[in-house]
């Protein structure tokens, strides 16, 4: 009987230990990514259907359908999907990375934390390592992540040189 009690106590401690080490993952299906050309105001689009996850261990992912980008001008949207992004051939864009300065973020305390995120961005069949500076804000135990960066389209083998060569990208996700 004593062995059963010891086994129960050891099992309970192991279970509690695993619970303490378990990561907390927050997610959204309606994150927002916008891009805009610094040289042509017509090259501006928004995608409000971005799937993203952020974990308190620093892992961060984004995934979106390229056809989810909406332009003010229907003609720009058509050119974007058919000629530039080739959305039928390359339907998704994905990012997988980690918060580099995770020790500076407290996921259990409300506040605003500057972060640097490093990871791989895959778009148009090309994967590039990128670093994005941003902010993780914790409010009522829920994180919001925001960041911005510049993409050189030729790095992803997208020839939009007749319109723009770079786009400014902004990311904003409110997690549950």
Automatic annotation (TrEMBL):
Keyword NADP among UniProt keywords: no
Alphabetically ordered keywords of this record: Signal
Signal peptide (UniProt feature, chain positions): 1-22
Protein name from the UniProt record: YceI-like domain-containing protein
Superkingdom of this protein's organism: Bacteria
The keyword Signal is assigned to this record: yes
Organism lineage: Bacteria, Pseudomonadati, Bacteroidota, Chitinophagia, Chitinophagales
InterPro entries: Lipid/polyisoprenoid-bd_YceI (IPR007372), TTHA0802/YceI-like_sf (IPR036761)
Protein's organism: Sediminibacterium goheungense
Domain Lipid/polyisoprenoid-binding YceI-like: residue ranges: 17-176
A Pfam match: YceI
């Amino acid at each position: 009987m004593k062995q059963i009690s010891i086994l129960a106590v050891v099992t309970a401690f192991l279970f509690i230990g695993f619970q303490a080490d378990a990561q907390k993952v927050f997610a959204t299906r309606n994150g927002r990514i916008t891009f805009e050309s610094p040289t042509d105001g017509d090259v501006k689009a928004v995608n409000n259907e971005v799937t993203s996850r952020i974990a308190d261990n620093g892992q961060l992912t984004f995934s979106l359908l390229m056809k989810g980008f909406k332009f003010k001008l229907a003609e720009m949207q058509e050119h974007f999907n058919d000629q530039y992004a080739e959305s039928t051939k390359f339907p998704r864009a994905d990012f997988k990375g980690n918060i580099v300065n995770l020790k500076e973020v407290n996921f259990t305390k409300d506040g605003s934390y500057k972060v640097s995120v490093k990871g791989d961005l895959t778009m148009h069949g090309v994967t590039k390592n990128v670093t994005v500076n941003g902010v993780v804000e914790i409010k009522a135990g829920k994180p919001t992540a925001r960041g911005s960066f510049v993409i050189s389209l030729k790095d992803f083998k997208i020839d939009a040189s007749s319109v723009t060569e770079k786009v400014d990208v902004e990311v904003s996700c409110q997690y549950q």
